Amino acid sequence: MLYRRGDMWWWKFRFAGRVFREPAKTANREVARRAEIKRRRELEEGYHGLKKRQAPQMLKTAADEWLKLKQPTLAPRSHLIERTNLTHVLPVLGSKLLTDIDAADISRYQHSRQKQGAAAKTINLEVGTVRAILRRHRLWATIQPDIRMLAAPDDIGKALSLGDEKKLLDACAASRSRSLLPAVLLALNTGLRYSELRLLTWAQIDLKRRTLRVGKSKTAAGTGRGIPLNTKATEVLTLWAEQFPNREPEHYVFPTERYGAGGDDFVPTVHSVDPTRAIGSWKEAWESARETANVRIRFHDLRHTCVTRMLEGGVPLSVVASLLGWSPATTARMAKRYGHIGEAAQRTAVGVLETFSVASV
Known about the structure:
It is a single chain. With 361 residues, the chain is an alpha+beta fold. It folds into three domains: 2-47; 59-146, DNA polymerase, domain 1 (Orthogonal Bundle), CATH 1.10.150; 162-347, Orthogonal Bundle (hpI Integrase, Chain A), CATH 1.10.443. It contains 14 helices and eight strands. The chain has helices at residues 29-47, 59-70, 76-93, 103-115, 120-136, 162-173, 180-190, 194-198, 231-241, 283-293, 300-312, 317-324, 328-337, 343-352, and strands spanning 2-5, 8-15, 18-23, 205-206, 211-213, 226-228, 255-261, 268-278. The strands form three sheets. It has a three-stranded antiparallel beta sheet with strand order 1-2-3, covered by helices on one side. A three-stranded antiparallel beta sheet has the order 4-5-6, with no helix packed on it. A two-stranded antiparallel sheet has the order 7-8. Helix 6 (162-173) packs across helix 10 (283-293).
């Protein structure tokens, strides 16, 4: 309640069992009203332990803080993507005050990146990083209605045919990297993401129970999920484990290895292994293998192949989602993407209803 005392306005209200009677220190009633609202909000935030954030002066300052804040909760690959996004964003918007960034700035950024030849999906990811930073400072909602993300094609990936799979596996078997073949086979038979596969440790694998426990993943739904190992995956891991008789639970399944010429035949041989460090990347070996096999797919398409084959085999989408670690939003999107594949399972499902029917046509 506002009331006058002399030339000044005062407020009086009750909060948490206590009466607050304080001067607004203004003769303007509207200013006093707004000051009272602000005072109430300060009390509520203090009561609930909410810390008020002051928006950093510039986007580049806020970006540094945001990256540090997100590092413990983001998968390494996701954190790298966010840092990469900012290498494009900060040269353009980094010196702007957070409170000065508006929809026109975002639109100009989108157009400039399009002129540079960046894909719509890439530009959307970069704008998404800006959105996350502004949301943290409660500034996105005011400009969101005037911002439109670019239309990006929904890349559904490519599923391997059995013929292409054989050519690819033969090329992987001949690769200079001995871990490429078991990694590809494991990806095809578990649907593991690249980072989940690369950072796998022996502690996460139980060959006796034929199970695998995923570590930190891209999504909360993916982190810690269990995956039963089929016969092929079990055979691959069993044979691979024989290469490391002194392995410890904390050692990486695919460790860093160094290769050298093996003699007169120049066959590459492993001359050092560091099981405490995960392999950095299969990129060079993967590119070489797919070129040799003449199969134009990405490593992520191994996961797509796994999904396609399970759905074509009649596995319910909900089961596939739990195995792949999809978030609820991703599951809904995948239901549309793979709907045509699940038709056989859907037909089987409605056929079950006939067994409960008592009416005849």
